[in-house]
Amino acid sequence: MVTDQVGTARAPGRPRSEKAEKAIIEATIDMIAEGATVAELSIEAVASRAGVGKTTIYRRWSGKEDLVLDALTSLKAPLPDLDAPTVRENVLRYLSVMQHESHSRRTRCIMNIALSESERFPHLAERFREIAIRPRREALRSVIQRGVASGELRHDTDIEVAMAALTGAMLFFTKWPGNDDPLPEDLAERIADQVLTGLRP
Amino acid sequence: MVTDQVGTARAPGRPRSEKAEKAIIEATIDMIAEGATVAELSIEAVASRAGVGKTTIYRRWSGKEDLVLDALTSLKAPLPDLDAPTVRENVLRYLSVMQHESHSRRTRCIMNIALSESERFPHLAERFREIAIRPRREALRSVIQRGVASGELRHDTDIEVAMAALTGAMLFFTKWPGNDDPLPEDLAERIADQVLTGLRP
Fold first, then answer.
1. What's the CATH class of domain B14-73?
2. Distance from CA of A17 to the nearest CA of B (A)
């Protein structure tokens, strides 16, 4: 991938276009974080907030769903390395990223939108799953499968339920209504230890 | 509690008012299930859908949030009896209700709204938690506490994490995006068995 470097000659106009794209993505994120639903969001409002013309947006994105998808995916923290020697360490890394993400009001808002609007914007929801959700799920599945293969976890581990218990427990604390207390600092450890206890030979 | 019985004399107008209330609640549920957000929902639109005047709505509800709250709570299945002799049986009953509720598109929509709009309608979200979420959570906590007290579960069980793993695993399958396959019929059993294995002495 070619990236701009200090001192490199650039095509005229390139930096301005990148700056505009960034402003457009930021404006979209801000508006969703402030409570706008995808249905309510308009290209016109985003353009006005970003200080660009509508045509600048349509040059880069085919429409609202396309733009929102880019905005959503830009907020996902990258996958952590899940190549530690033990299942526990990999699970801790995974859960810690989830817990860390939940601190951001922006991320919370945007995940909520991703969750709530799948009925209205099925294409957006499907692409969001492909880009942002499935790769993470595959990475966690692989951690558990490797643990079963190495004998660290029981050979009859119900892999889908194990993933659901680990991820779901963290979601329950971070995303589900009714948890108003600050998250315990050792939450990832507590979840990993309790759930993995049931999976050991 | 006094209830209407067949043959009982009723105050004139009472049945009509009950019918109108039911139509108003149904209209609200339908519109949310079709994708309307709380922000978008208007008393005027609900009145028109229910075939009543706006004043009929305002006679019973102080406003939109009040009406939506009644609509949401009317959809929650009642708490199952959680007085079976074993933790496993009680957990199964609890998880089965959660799984059953998720089959309804209406319920899914409405739970999504309850989740997504807590930032915009904090009062609505708070009352919804009080009425619909906390009593269930307390009931499950009590099941686990009784299991610890009776020795069926380990004395060092992390009760909050156990609740999160059980409930969160079911939510992960029923509410989280990315699970498009039909739910396995024995899902409640699989979750109960795997999570409880880690909690036994």
1. mainly alpha
2. 33
Contact residues, chain A, for B188 at CB < 8 Å: none
Q: Are B117 and B38 in contact (CB under 8 A)?
A: yes
Task: Determine the distance in angstroms separating the CA of B143 from the nearest CA of chain A, rounded to an integer.
Answer: 18
pLDDT tens sequence across B29-46: 888 877 777 888 899 999
Contact B168, A172 (CB under 8 A): yes
Residue A120 sits at the chain B interface (C-beta within 8 Å): yes
Instruction: Say if CB B95 and CB B39 are below 8 A apart.
Output: no
Alpha-carbon distance A107 to nearest alpha carbon in chain B (angstroms): 12
CB environment A40-75: b (16+ within 10 A), e (fewer):
ebebeebbeebebeeebbeeebeebbbbbbbbbbeb
The candidate with the shortest Cα–Cα distance to B188, out of B99, B66, B120, is: B99
**Cα gap A2→A123, rounded to integer Å:** 30
Residue with the larger pLDDT of the pair A112 and A4: A112
Q: Do A177 and B112 touch (CB under 8 A)?
A: no
Instruction: Tell whether B128 is within 8 A of chain A (Cβ).
Output: yes
What is the pLDDT at residue B9?
Answer: 47
Taking the Cβ of residue A111 and every Cβ of chain B, the question of whether any pair is shorter than 8 Å is answered with no
Residue B190's pLDDT is 96
Domain ranges of chain B: 14-73, 76-197
| Homologous superfamily in CATH for domain A14-72 | Tetracycline Repressor, domain 2 (1.10.357.10)
Is it the case that residue A198 has pLDDT exceeding 80?
Answer: yes
- Quick: pLDDT tens for B77-132: 678 899 999 999 999 999 998 888 777 766 766 666 666 666 677 787 777 778 77
Which of A30, A32, A37 is best to mutate for the B interface (most B CBs within 10 A)? A37
Residue among B119, B162, B172 whose CB faces A194 most closely:
B162
Q: Which CATH number fits domain B76-197: 3.40.309.10, 2.40.50.140, 1.10.357.10, 3.40.50.970?
A: 1.10.357.10
Complex ipTM value:
0.77
A43 vs A67: CA distance, rounded Å: 9
Q: With an 8 Å Cβ cutoff, is A190 touching chain B?
A: yes
